[in-house]
Amino acid sequence: MRTIRIGSGAGYSGDRIEPAVELAEKGNINYLVFECLAERTIAIAQNAKLNDPTKGYDPLLVERFESVLPICKKNGIKIITNMGAANPQAGAAKVREIATRLGLGKLKIAAISGDDVVEALKVSDTKILETGAPASNMADVLISANAYVGAAPMVEALANGADVIITGRVADPSMFLAPQIHEFGWSQDDWDKIGKGTAVGHLLECGGQVTGGYYAEPGKKDVADLARLGFPIAEVSEDGAIVITKVEGSGGKVTEHTCKEQILYEVHDPKTYLTPDVTADFSQITFTEIAPNRIRVTGVTGRARTKTFKVSVGYADGYMGEGQISYAGPGALARAQLALDIVRERLKITGVKASELRFDLIGVNSIHAEVLAPAPEPTEVRVRVTGRCDSMKEAVRIGNEVETLYTNGPASGGGATKSAKQVVAMLSALFPRDKVIPVIEYLEA
Amino acid sequence: MKLFDIAHSRTGDKGNISNISVIVYDQKDYERVREYVTPERVKAHFKGIVNGEVVRYEIPTLGALNFVMQDALGGGVTRSLALDAHGKCLASALLAMDIPAKN
């Protein structure tokens, strides 16, 4: 039975660089996938592209490709990534430039776009899922709208001999599914196999989160060597048999329990995991350790996919201002509470226009509010005030009112910081499949 | 005893919805956790944080429950004023739930 090995080189845009190098060098992999596009990343990239048409791809694209491209070329590893963000063509051109500069010889790069539906959405009656209002109502604040495209265009690019695929918005698991469909010639409506291939993608898409990252609980769930965490590899056979593993000797661990945590990560109904490719069913999944750091995955099935693509909608949502200051030693909590009272009153007296305000004591209640039982008096507390405003000018005033606690507030306040930023927020919608036309362009080095 | 003693947990986020898995270390504790950690108890546990409905899915093959909590992330990850906008820490907060010791 033929088997391929797929490595996951990044779980988010800012992820560590060298685990992917380790995978390319020692992982004996056929494909290396980088998932680098969070919900909001593409809206931010869209703004970058508006300012400079040669930008709008992932800020770490150059560093990642410089690190892995020579090794991947030498070892015959194909690379698939959504680092194209808002501008896959510009990302692909950059990869070609790197390949030429490093003298890597022939390389076929595919840029997949067509996910950008912002103009179509502005004039459509498509409803925003969260609000129920038509997307056209918010045309003046829309920054981006990108459909989660499936595996199909990536499968086509692989069939046409692409060594590197740079996409915009695609569903994360689809990047891992595409090479399985391509290599094994699976029919794209063989729902059980597509479901299994999607489970592989879901387990790998967050990089180290299945190899012991986001998992350690000292004394209960110990994980060795997280500073050298190895990223995951999936071994997939033609019949859809799956083993999850990692590079031998790397940090972290792959166990039944690391897999259990990751398979449910960001999943709602495990029976109905919707992707552009399939409705996957994880409700009967099992994980079995067949050797240390080798977990067999069974029990995944699939059903027909839905008729729509999910669209991620980015819009300008005002401004956020924040200020922080610390208090320590005996009476720290009382002084921190006094500080919050003072800022609350100051924001009123000076008429700062905020539609929402939040007052936290970091170390006391900033994460869990009333959930946890009261802790013993802390020896240090950090005050945090944040608010939402319609203008940058107003947002800045929130941090200023925290900073002035230095000379106007309780005793011994220290380490004040302040910030203000524009908020790019995200909503979602469902868009008919036939209105999203993926475009594949090829560049050759 | 606390849920922390017999189960582990991970939080995921989608928009303003948070999901928390609760996974027993030992399959023999699954039934007990399933009986005690109800959606109603989880909703009460997260009073002041989770404003919407809490739905529970059971995955017995994993010894796991998955709680999906609406209106749990201060308007959504990308616009929340919270320090932990993703609600990543909610998993640990859920493990602080007291659970009756075995009969």
UniProtKB/TrEMBL annotation, chain A:
Pfam families: AtuA. This is DUF1446 domain-containing protein. It comes from the Bacteria. Residues 4-439 form the Acyclic terpene utilisation N-terminal domain.
From TrEMBL, chain B:
Residues 1-99 form the AtuA-like ferredoxin-fold domain. InterPro entries: AtuA-like_ferredoxin_dom. It comes from the Bacteria. This is AtuA-like ferredoxin-fold domain-containing protein. It comes from Aliirhizobium smilacinae.
